[in-house]
Amino acid sequence: MHNKVVFHTMKALNSFGYPVLRFNFRGTGLSQGEHDHGQGEVDDVRTALDWLDAEYHLPLIFAGFSFGAAVGLRASYADDRVGALLAAGMPVAPVAADTEEPRVYTFEFLEDCVKPKLFISGARDQFGPRAKLEALVASISEPKKLVVIEGADHFFEGRLRELREAIEAWVKDSVGS
Fold first, then answer.
1. I need a labelling partner for 121 at 20 to 30 A (CA). Which of 23, 86, 152, 156 fits?
2. Domains plus CATH for the chain?
3. For 56-68, what is each residue's pLDDT tens digit?
């Protein structure tokens, strides 16, 4: 919630007048509950979408980073209130800590999703190898866009301006304001 990728994504969307809600998943930071390995976290995203809809009554764009992208896409792809999907640092090849079970994310549900989709990744993202990300994006329906930022890692270190510019261009060209 407080990392630079999430902050710059929020600033890019907010520059078009979209209200933005950043939140911690269950068991993260000061939030209640326990980490649920991506299952309960889908409900966390749905709860956030419900709140945004009730508070603002505006079309929604889902944007997530890393784990948040993986579970958020699952929660929002079929939600009629969500008009577009943005995934930064998509974990197509996640690496779990030695003490955890390996994380495996599948994205077949996106194959027939006709909402505008933006995937942004660093060329050196250790959780999003370019070939795997390109294969994922190739397997899903249009409209879609993949932006790979050269020299960037998973956290877009030193390349946050490019991240923000890519989001702003996509909103302007694909989503509207």
1. 23
2. 4-26+35-175 (3.40.50.1820)
3. 999 899 999 999 9
